[in-house]
Amino acid sequence: MTAVKKNEIVGSLYDFEEIKLSDKMFTRFAERMYSLAGVDLPLTPKNHALIRNRIVKLLRRHSLKSYEEYWTMLEKGGSELTSEFISALTTNMTSFYREANHFDFLKSVLPDLAKKFGTDLRLWCAAASTGQEPYTIAMTACEAAADMSPATKPRLLATDIDLQVLKKASTGTYEEREMQGLPPAQRTRYFEKIKANGDEYWRAKDQIHDMIRFAPFNLMNPKYEFQHKFHVIFCRNVLIYFDEPTTKKVIDNLVACLAPGGYLILGHSESGNVKHPGLKPMSRAVYQKI
Ligand SMILES: C[S@@+](CC[C@H](N)C(=O)[O-])C[C@H]1O[C@@H](n2cnc3c(N)ncnc32)[C@H](O)[C@@H]1O
Fold first, then answer.
1. Which residue has its alpha carbon closest to ligand 1 atom 3?
2. Distance from Cα 128 to the centre of ligand 1, integer Å
3. What residues form DSSP beta bridges with 242?
4. Which residue, by CA, sits nearest to atom 9 of ligand 1?
5. Rounded CA separation 71/46 (Å)
6. Which residues form the domain of 212?
7. How far is CA 56 from CA 24, 37, 139, 146, 191, in A?
8. How far apart are CA 130 and CA 4, in angstroms?
9. Residue 96: inside a domain, yes or no?
10. What is the mean pLDDT of residues 65-74?
11. Active-site residue among 54, 60, 155, 203?
C-alpha cells in the first residue's frame, strides 16, 4: 500500500513561478474559501504567498497556464474540484500529543464520564486533520481504561472538511517524520511497523483504529445535527482561521451539541475567543458546559 500524500504533483510543463497572481484573482480565491470553509484570508503579503503557492500546484496538476484558467475550471467544475480547492487551501499541521495537558485532562475525567454514561460515552474530534489528534485521544482512552469499566469503550467521531487528510487519517498510517510527539512506549504499544513499496511506515493497531469513525464534516454547517450529544469535543487549532462572527457561530453550535457537564477543548491560542454564558472555564482552553 502507499501512504496518501497531500497535494502530490505530477509533471511540470511551464515555468509556474513566473505566473503572477493579481489582487483581483487573490480576492476571488479568498472569498470562495471563506464561503466554503469559513477560512478568513485577508489580503496580506503572507496570505498572498500562501494562495499563490498552493494554487500554483493545482495549475501544474491540471496543466493550466493561468490562475484565470483555473478559476474558470473551478467555477464550472463539480464537487471533486471544490474538494481539491478546499484541501489545497487548508492548513493541516498537527502532531501526536499536541498541547499535551489536554490529554492529561481527558485521562483525569474519562473514568468518571464512563461511570456516568457507560457505553454511551461519546467523543468528537472536530478538525482531525491527518489523524494524530484522534489517535492520541484513543490512546488516552486506552490508558484511562485501567480506571474504567472494561466494558466501556468510548465512541470517537473524527471529522474534517478536507477529504484528503481524512482519507489519510482513516488509514492510520504514518511516515517516521509524522510520528513526532509520540513517546517510544506508546509507539510500540499502539502502532506496528509495516513495509509498503520498499518503504517503512507505522500503522495504528486495531485497538485504537477500531475505536474511531471518520467522516467529513464542515464546521460551517448552519446547524450541527447529530442524533446524540457528545461528552467531550476537541475542536483545536481551527478557530484561528475563522473571523469573530464565524467563531461565535461555531462555538454556539458546538455548545448546542455538548451534553450538560460535557467538555469543550479548544487550541491553546484560541481560548481568548470564548465568551459563552453556557461555558465554565476549567483549565487552559478547556471548558465545561454548565
Ligand atoms: C491546523 S489543523 C489542526 C488539527 C488538529 N485539530 C490539531 O490541533 O492538531 C486545522 C484543521 O481544520 C480543518 N478545517 C478548516 N476549516 C474547516 C471547516 N470549516 N470545517 C471543518 N474542518 C476545517 C483543516 O482541514 C485542518 O485539517
1. 237
2. 6
3. none
4. 94
5. 21
6. 101-289
7. 16, 20, 38, 50, 36
8. 10
9. no
10. 96
11. 54
Atom of ligand 1 nearest to the CA of 267: 8
Q: Which atom of ligand 1 is nearest to the CA of 98?
A: 9
What nine digits make up the cell of 113?
A: 464520564
Confirm whether 54 is a catalytic residue: yes
Domain's final residue, options 89, 117, 149: 89
Which cell is 6 given? 497531500
The grid cell for 59 is 495549475
> Distances in Å between the alpha carbon of 34 and those of 14, 68, 102?
29, 19, 29
The total number of residues shown for the chain amounts to 290
Whether residue 257 sits in one domain with residue 129: yes
**Residue 121, Cβ neighbours under 10 Å: how many?**
22
DSSP string covering 94-163, please? --TTTTTHHHHHHHHHHHHHHHHHGGG-EEEESS-TTTHHHHHHHHHHHHHGGGS-TT---EEEEEES-H
83-142 pLDDT tens trace: 999 999 999 999 999 999 999 999 999 999 988 888 899 999 999 999 999 999 999 999
Q: Is 177 noted as a catalytic residue in this protein?
A: no
